[in-house]
Specification:
The protein is of the alpha/beta class. It has a domain of 194 residues: Rossmann fold (3-Layer(aba) Sandwich). It has ten helices and eleven strands. The strands form two sheets. A seven-stranded mixed beta sheet has the order 4-3-2-9-10-1-11, with helices on both faces. It starts with a strand and ends in a 5-residue tail after the last strand. InterPro entries: EGF_Rcpt_Signaling_Reg, FkbM_mtfrase, SAM-dependent_MTases_sf.
């Protein structure tokens, strides 16, 4: 089946807009002045992934950011290091997304992207042309460990992370299915659905269902990853996660993140294109078109 994407463009944002979604941020729990005493919310000895998951720590919690910085994010390759590409002669490997976005941004140079579902960093990459030809940098997110290994060898001039994007406004551990390298994705599990389920139940479910191709994977909210690398202004966000796009978009505190343009795959999302469009329009985005993939990732 062809891969359809809706691609809303940010047109305007009103500072008085109050989101209905609760994003689990530090200021919601401790007030806007919490940063003045931020050290009391961070204990290096207790700051572990297990602790962050069990406590459902806020997206901007110092422990969450430290975990990402210390364990889950790799620095961009220096500009003077050559790329290692399979098809270096292919200028733009995307299916038209990069051209459409750059048309809106008037061939903006030195921009910043986030590509989730970055695969090997080259095949059908929506951001490689921007990086190679227009001096962009960004964040490449790929949870499939085999694809990430290839991505890491490309010498991309962007941050990379093997974590997945959380479908909740806090860190979670999920089961990740890599049996199909082109369509790896989070596995729906009973422990990922009810908000009230205990962490011990979650861990038990993960243990029982883990196999060679289905393994545990750590996920963080997009906002947490952005704060960890010091970027909250994004020129282009590419989201392709085989059905969890709507849930991920719901975790973003839109008043705290500036995203100019984005493309979102929707044909695997159970909520459908209309729900994703509605969510984006409520956050002051405008849909400008659809892409039809002629090739398959």
């Amino acid at each position: 089946m062809d891969n359809l994407q809706n691609t809303p463009q940010l047109q305007s944002h009103h500072a008085t807009y109050e989101p209905k979604t609760k994003y689990n941020l530090m200021e919601e729990s401790y007030g806007k002045k919490w940063k003045h005493a931020s050290e009391k919310y961070y204990d290096p000895e207790s700051c572990t992934v297990e602790f962050a998951n069990a406590q459902k720590l806020q997206q901007d919690h110092p422990c969450v950011l430290r975990l990402i910085q210390d364990i889950y994010v790799r620095q961009p390759s220096p500009r003077n290091i050559p790329y290692k590409l399979v098809e270096p002669e292919l200028v733009d490997p995307s299916d038209g997304q990069s051209k459409g976005i750059l048309r809106l941004l008037r061939n903006h140079t030195n921009g910043f992207f986030v590509e989730c579902g970055a695969f090997d960093g080259e095949y059908l990459s929506n951001t490689l042309y921007m990086e190679r030809s227009l001096n962009w940098t960004g964040l490449l997110i790929e949870a499939d460990q085999n694809a990430f290994h290839k991505l890491s060898s490309r010498n991309r001039k962007a941050y990379t992370t093997p974590a997945c994007l959380s479908t909740k406004p806090y860190p979670i551990q999920v089961l990740y299915n890599t049996s199909d390298s082109l369509y790896s994705a989070i596995v729906e599990r009973d422990g990922d659905k009810p908000e009230h389920e205990s962490s011990s139940q979650n861990e038990e479910t993960l243990t029982v269902n883990t196999t060679v191709n289905v393994h545990k994977k750590q996920c963080f909210p997009l906002y947490s990853l952005l704060l960890a690398i010091g970027r909250t202004e994004i020129d282009y966000f590419s989201l392709d996660v085989e059905g969890f796009e709507y849930k991920i978009l719901q975790t973003i505190p839109w008043l705290k993140v500036g995203i100019k343009t984005l493309t979102v795959e929707w044909n695997h999302a159970p909520e459908g294109e209309a729900a994703i469009t509605g969510l984006m329009e409520r956050n002051k985005f405008v849909k400008f078109g659809l892409f039809v993939h002629r090739r398959h990732r």
